[in-house]
Amino acid sequence: MRQTQGAVVVIVGPVEAERGGLEPLLGHTVAAFDLNLGQVTAVLKRSALYLGNDSGVTHLAAAVGARTIALFGPSDARRWAPRGEKAMVLNRKVECSPCDLPSMKSCLHRTCLTEFTAEEIIAELANLPEMASLTRLGPGIRV
């Protein structure tokens, strides 16, 4: 693995702040709290790479032209994936995904989301052309 320089920014919205569990990330990243939509857009436009789940911010990242990797689970990526030249989707391709339950929240196993591993995602990111010239991750961050 190679080491690069710069900053990993975690955009923390109200829901993430309320749910908590961010402590393991905060020592190794720059956390951006309480940003308005214009500020989020500005951060995304300057980002070499954006990684997120199926969300509005992920669609915004693709719309502003950032290299966007969207993690999809129960929702239908053919229908809901972010659009853009630099947008791609990672999913687990489990047989029940896209979810056929009336409410995705009633799924008992959530394999489509829980089976992602950090190693798998990092391996996918390492293959991106942006990673060849990326020199903006922080000390101690490995790709």
Quick description:
The chain has 143 residues and is α/β, with parallel strands linked by helices.
3D structure, described in words:
The chain has 143 residues and is α/β, with parallel strands linked by helices. It has one domain: 3-Layer(aba) Sandwich (Rossmann fold). It is 34% helix and 15% strand. The chain has helices at 14-19, 23-26, 37-45, 56-63, 77-80, 111-114, 118-126, 129-133, and strands spanning 9-12, 30-33, 50-53, 68-72, 87-91. A 3-stranded parallel beta sheet has the order 3-4-5, covered by helices on one side. It has a two-stranded parallel sheet with strand order 1-2. The protein is globular and about 40 Å long. The termini are close together. Mean pLDDT is 83; it is low at 135-143.
Present the secondary structure layout:
Blueprint: E1 9-12, H1 14-19, H2 23-26, E2 30-33, H3 37-45, E3 50-53, H4 56-63, E4 68-72, H5 77-80, E5 87-91, H6 111-114, H7 118-126, H8 129-133
Parallel strand pairs: 1-2, 3-4, 4-5
Shape: globular
- CATH fourth-tier homologous superfamily: Glycogen Phosphorylase B
Stretches where pLDDT is under 50 for at least 5 consecutive residues are 135-143
Q: Within the CATH hierarchy, at the fold level, what is the topology?
A: Rossmann fold
Largest sheet: 3 strands, parallel
Radius of gyration, in Å, reads 16 Å
Distance N to C terminus: 6 Å
**CATH architecture call:** 3-Layer(aba) Sandwich
List SSEs in N-to-C order: EHHEHEHEHEHHH
- Main CATH class: Alpha Beta
Q: How many β-strand stretches? A: 5
Count of discrete domains: 1
Strand order of the largest sheet: 3-4-5
Counting helices, strands and paired strands, the structural category is: alpha/beta
Percent in strands = 15-25%
Percent of residues in helices comes to: 25-40%
Question: What average pLDDT do the residues reach?
Answer: 83
